[in-house]
Amino acid sequence: MKNILIPTDFSENAWNAIEYALRFFSKSSCNFYILHVNTSEVSRFQEQVSTNDDTIVSSVVKSPSKKLLQQTIKRIVKSPYLSDKHRFYPVMDNNYILNSIRKQVTEKKIDFIVMGTRGASGLNNLAVGSNTGNVITKVKCTTLVVPENAKYVSPKEIAFPTDFSFFYNVETLQPMADIIEANHAAVRALHINKKSTDLNEDQQKTKNF
User: Fold this and answer.
1) If 7 and its partner were Cys, which of 22, 96, 117, 128 is the partner (CB 3.0–4.6 Å)?
2) Dihedral, CA atoms, 67, 74, 154, 29, nearest 10 degrees?
């Protein structure tokens, strides 16, 4: 059973990432955790705590985000890509995005994070905000980034960019191996060398592995 975390800001880009994930993992038994991080409430809480105002507690509970998250789950249930292998769990957190995602990854033993992007600039404009670049580089979890308006096509060839300087253990490669097996896909290792030099001994060992 795979555990998949999908952060959402309730935008259409975020919804596209959800539908993409449903199709991408259609052959796998999965728990999908649909996470909305309410960063605005964190800022309000910090501002009001300094003035000893406890009314923030009730406003957090009554946040309209909870209703939007419930509506998202209902929309998923009506999706034509729904599978009986999938289970869905709404998660709300009043926190900073990076901290919240790290917490969910640890507590729920997340295998994949799926996130949507806006526009051609990629990592800097993700559906959950500008912190997503940090999620990809600073959260120890495999992350699938879905470009804006991307439509799912079963992968038949997977590019694996590498300079062979990092040794990939079995645990690191397992998520990609699962995707390859599920889709009967081929993998192509892509190495780009700016200079016409041979691989060093360590790089050659990694390549052979």
Assistant:
1) 128
2) 100
The CATH number of whichever domain residue 38 belongs to comes to 3.40.50.620
**CB distance 22 to 34 below 8 Å:** no
Alpha-carbon distances of 81 from 27, 105, 124, 148, 198, rounded to whole Å: 11, 25, 29, 19, 47
Q: Which two tokens stand for residue 92?
A: 């709300």
Interior angle at CA 189, CA 185 and CA 194, nearest 5:
150
- The per-residue pLDDT for range 176-203, each reduced to its tens digit, is 888 888 888 998 888 777 776 777 777 7
**181 contact partners, CB below 8 Å, separation of at least 6:** none
Is there a single domain that holds both residue 107 and residue 176? no
* Boundary-marking domain end, from 120, 150, 180: 150
The region that residue 144 occupies, defined by phi over 0 for left and psi between -120 and 50 for alpha, beta otherwise, is beta
Q: How far apart are CA 32 and CA 143, in angstroms?
A: 14
pTM for this predicted structure: 0.77
